[in-house]
Specification:
With 248 residues, this protein is of the alpha/beta class. It is 31% helix and 26% strand. It has a 5-stranded antiparallel sheet. A hairpin with a 4-residue loop joins strand 1 and strand 2. Helix 3 packs across helix 4. The termini are far apart. Bound molecules: adenosine-5'-triphosphate and magnesium ion. Adenosine-5'-triphosphate binds next to strand 2 and helix 1.
Length: 248
């Protein structure tokens, strides 16, 4: 991993984002769409940032860029590992894959339900990857499923047959079973019932207390009001025609 030691770094810092920008080239429309520009923020251990902005303001795009599903157009995403600092904006794909497996989580409302894999096995998988013995991982997975209100009779069933809400609960049970160092959340509660939302908020509070740094968008921000340390407001996008460039 291309890690730099950096004396300016404070030990509790998890992320320092500098001048981050992302744009989409829409070739068929001959336009550039600026998703966001010049974003700066810091995130420390145990901090929770709420991301706000109207539809299309670039919230999901910012989270996907931090997770490096998208490459930014410019700027830096300095991420602090135990060994030192790595710029996620420029890191190799192989390093990103390692970090995603070990310490950076991304939670959406959608479950990647693979055929013929039981709910409890899907939820136990992150623990198995981290070296937890199978029986212990399954026991924890069942506790996690119960916590999100997935009925006992469904634990050994295949989530591809579940309702949308049940799939979301399995997704959350899996995504939050192992405390990550950094957790990115994109509307994880969008169509959950009230009890499941409460279970999620309780789990996020536990993770925050354990030092997990979080940044997320919430469909019901009032749910997480007690967790919020700071807010980032994204403004609506600008669209530029290629003709504008020519005129400059
Ligand atoms: N892969 C892509 N290619 C081109 N444009 C994209 C792409 N992904 C997002 N966009 C555009 O970028 C803008 C920001 O989208 P984004 O999904 O980040 O918004 P959002 O703030 O998450 O909105 P919402 O509240 O509706 O979820 C939108 O105009 C969207 O159409
Ligand atoms: Mg979005």
């Amino acid at each position: 991993m291309n890690i730099q030691l950096n004396a300016r770094w404070d030990a509790t810092q998890v992320l320092r984002v500098e001048n981050l920008s992302k744009q989409f080239e829409m070739h068929h429309l001959k336009r550039t769409l600026f998703a966001f520009e010049n974003i700066d923020f810091e995130l420390h251990e145990g901090e929770f940032i709420l991301l706000k902005g109207e539809n299309g303001a670039g919230k999901s795009t910012l989270l996907r860029t931090l997770y490096r599903s998208y490459l930014p157009r410019g700027g830096h995403i300095y991420y602090h590992t135990k060994e030192g600092v790595i710029d996620l904006a420029a890191a190799a794909d192989v390093d990103i894959a390692i970090l995603r497996r070990r310490e950076i989580g991304f939670v959406t409302q959608f479950l990647n339900a693979r055929p013929r894999v039981a709910a409890e096995e899907i939820v136990a998988e992150p623990l198995r990857f981290a070296g937890t013995p199978h029986a212990e991982a399954l026991a924890q997975a069942r506790r996690s499923l119960a916590g999100f209100g997935v009925k006992r009779g469904l634990w050994a069933a295949y989530p591809s047959m579940f309702s949308g809400g049940e799939q979301q609960k399995v997704n959350l049970a899996r995504a939050l079973i192992l405390p990550q160092r950094l957790l990115l959340l994109d509307e994880p509660t969008a169509s959950l019932d009230r009890d499941a939302r409460r279970a999620l908020v309780d789990r996020l509070a536990e993770l925050k207390a354990a030092g997990v740094a979080m940044i997320g968008v919430f469909h019901h921000p009032e749910d997480v009001v007690d967790l919020i340390d700071r807010e980032i407001h994204l403004k609506a996008i600008k669209i530029e025609d290629e003709a504008d460039h020519v005129a400059e």
